[in-house]
Amino acid sequence: MTxxxxxxxxxxxxxxxxxxRNHSSKALLPAASTQKxxxxxxxxxxxxxxxxxxxxxxxxxxxxxxxxxxxPGVYWTHNDSGDGPFIYAFDTRGNSRGVWRVxxxxxxxxxxxxxxxGPKPGVSYLYIGDIGDNQSKRPEIVIYRVPEPDLKTGARxxxxxxxxxxxxxxxxxxxxxxHDAEALLVHPxxxxxxxxxxxxxGNPGIYEAKAPLTAGGTSTLNLIGTLSVPSLLGGIITGGxxxxxxxxxxxxxxxxxxxxxLENASSAFNAIWKRxxxxxxxxxxAQGEAITYRLDSKALLxxxxxxxxxxxxxxxx
Length: 317
Prior knowledge:
- Strands 2-3-4-5-9 form a five-stranded mixed β-sheet, with no helix packed on it.
- The chain is built from one helix and 24 strands.
- β6 and β7 form a beta hairpin.
- The chain is mostly beta strands and 317 residues long.
- The chain has one domain: 6 Propeller (Neuraminidase).
């Protein structure tokens, strides 16, 4: 192995207390969930480019990214553990579009953010995943939901962050013990949630919570499958997203990206988990933990931990 691969193994081990944890129990999963992914590199995307550098130095560990559903060209991000419950809006030029404190939320280990529908028709909601668990010992994970804030109200400094509407709090447990996870996905039409775990040299689990979600109490996620990731390091999944058209899913790890595509538009969405993941080059990222689709579903955008934070893009051919 090269030194870079050895370093990634070491880095990943720091973020996961269980190096090889098997999620592929046939007693729990349908046979199709164990299908192996093809180890091929996609020709569907062009060369990665850097669009900008985020000018707000408050974001030092961008760990999630989501495309605004209300203002095209605007994106939401948040810091990894160590920050408060803040979300940051920015545009593709790297300009800050505001900072908000999520009302009623705490930040233990925020790892991903997604945009999707909620209880009010026509309203876009942000879902924030407090799902990180490096030691795999949390008895439950937390997902916050808040209406996507109006950009006109956003403060320009973290010290004066604008409060959001009161966040709804959803608590979940896994059906098979604690897991580390960094990928939260929300279906753009149904509002179903998916949490994909992070595991070195193993197959990540895919866990689902069907909408409508119930706040108060703790619900149990459903294990619906596993991912077979075409990587030497297995499933060190650090971010994920569903395309706004509902036909694609994308993931990233520290090295590259992966995408699966529904075979036809009429298929039930969960058929996508039986499709092979195809590798995508995402360009140079210091520590890539965030990926999302552009609003038109024709490009992927990524950030990286570190300050200043870059915004990168790969466009589908």
